[in-house]
Write a structure and sequence with these properties.
Number of helices: 1
Radius of gyration: 14 Å
Order of helices and strands: HEEE
Number of strands: 3
Structural class: alpha+beta
Largest sheet: 3 strands, antiparallel
Helix content: 25-40%
CATH architecture: Roll
Strand content: 25-35%
Low-confidence stretches: none
Shape: elongated
Length: 77
């Protein structure tokens, strides 16, 4: 498997764990439009805290905090 695919699998797993601790398993976020995404600064590769601000189906702004691999990782790291 391509190393980048592993990163995506692990990141999705971490997101699922994060959502599972803050929401019921059957509850999915009501995301209609993503307004912004940010992540903590980190040099090199690793897991960082991230935040997504989005609009739900009622037009209300919501915030989702989660953990993910940093975007600054190079290929093969």
């Amino acid at each position: 498997m391509n190393p980048n695919n592993w990163k995506h699998c692990i990141a999705l797993g971490l997101l699922a764990l994060t959502l599972g601790t803050h929401a019921e398993a059957s509850q999915k976020p009501d995301i209609q439009r993503v307004l912004s995404t940010t992540e903590d600064a980190r040099s090199g590769c690793g897991v960082v805290n991230a935040r997504m601000t989005y609009l739900d189906s009622k037009g209300q702004t919501q915030v989702l905090d989660y953990m993910k691999f940093t975007d600054t990782c190079g290929d093969g790291n």
